[in-house]
Structure formats: C-alpha cells, structure tokens
# Entry
Amino acid sequence: MPLYYKEKHSENVYMELMLDQQLYYEQSSFQKIEVFHNQEYGRILTIDDCLMITERDEFIYHEMMVHVPMAVHPGVKRALVIGGGDGGTITRLLMYPEIETIDIVEIDERVVEVCKEFFPKLGNSFNDPRVHLYVEDGLKYIRRYEDLYDLIIVDSTDPFGPGESLFTREFYGNCYKALKPDGILVNQHESPFYDGDAENVWEIRVQTKKIFPHNYVYQVHIPSYPSGHWLFGFMSKLYKPVSDHDAARWEARGIKTRYYNSKIHEGCFALPNYVLDLLAEEKDLFD
# Structure
C-alpha cells in the first residue's frame, strides 16, 4: 500500500506526495521532526507536519534569502542566522570569503543533527570554522546585542510553535538594535495567496513597517511551498534593494547559482497587484 505525506494548505486545499519511505521520525523536546523520500523531490524534511525543505527545490529558498542582501551590502563581515537548522542558509553565506563570522541560533539542536545526517550537503556547513552554533531561543539571544551584525537572516518556521516569538514587534525591534548602522535584515515572509497565510504576511508587515526606514517585500516561486508563491522581507537602516543593488560587483564573484541572478534580483521586487493591495503599499517600489 503506498505511503503518502499530506499537508494542509488551506481549509479546502491539501498537498499530497507519494512517498517511497519514511527515513526518520523523532518527537524532540520542541517539535515533531520527520524525513521522507519522494521520487520527484528527493529527501523531504518536515516539522510538525509542515514541509521545511526538499532536496529538489531548497536552492530556490536559500539562494534568494542570501544572495539578495549580499548583492546590496558591500561589506558583510559578521552575519547572524536565526533558525536555519537545516544548514541551507549558512551554506550559501559560506560562498562569501569576506564574511568572517556566521552565528546561527537554532532552538532545537535535533534539527541540526538530523540534517547533518540526512542532508549532508547542507548540514556539513556547520563544521566550517566560521560558523558558530548557539542552541537557544532566537528572541532571547538577540536581546543581548547592539550594533554588532552587518546582516541578519531570519530563516524561521511558520509563526506558531517554537518559531512564534520570531514574528513579534519585540523581536524585530531587537534585530534593529543588533544591526550596524548599514545593516540589513531578511526574513521569510510567508505566502500571500491563501487567506490564512496572507494574514501572517500582513501581520509581519504591521510589526516591521514602523521599525525599519527601508522596508520592502520580494517574491519567489518555490514549488513545494503552499501555493508556490512565497515572499521574503528586505529591511534596512540604509540600503534600498534595487537602487543600491550592485550587479557588477556581485557578478564579478563568479558564484554559481541555479535560481538567483541580477535580473531576478531586480524583478523580484516588482509585486503583483493583489500582493501590493495586501501590503497596502504604493505600487512604485523602485524609489
């Protein structure tokens, strides 16, 4: 009898994947962690019955979280990743030799250990000497620092369970404080398509809009995520993501990517009208 993974995307929509096998199951102190294998997507990591990454399309998510801010900020030396226990974000950050330190804060160490075993291309990045893992709550960690980081990436799960505190105004205010005067914050911003997810998008916008003087949203297509239409936030004290984008500098690095490029960088900030309406933004984001 075939084995299936079924995930609820809305009250009326479910995604279903036929599985070859379940590779791992654990109920950690924080959440349920599972790894499956599907012929189309390869290995799949789920947490509390929500798909986190797949081998087939994780590159889209992680490339767009990392390369967008790195193509804007000219001098990232110290980066912080909150969440990101699968290792995909730090794997892309390690492509930049000028980054001296990558601190990563993950509340559940078991996620890291599981990904080291089942997603070694990503998980092995934790062994790099520039990477420093802190196993604790991201909100408590960020409270302690001021004027320290050039780049903060909030690679969190959905806004419930262990990741709920990473969607509060207090958290984003503390991130602002921990950034240097030219620092950038990027976060996963949920999907604008289904009503429940769209409410989360709006809530994030409400929490961050008055904190960061430069606050933008950009989009990406991730096939395995709800609706396939996903958003990220770009927030900064100084830089604007399009007018301060240095395509020539980034392209000179010769970094090999599968999704991100300089045209995608500029185009991803042009949002559909239904997203602009949701965000209650002016339609011209290219200021």
Confidence is low (pLDDT under 50) at residues 159-163, 282-287.
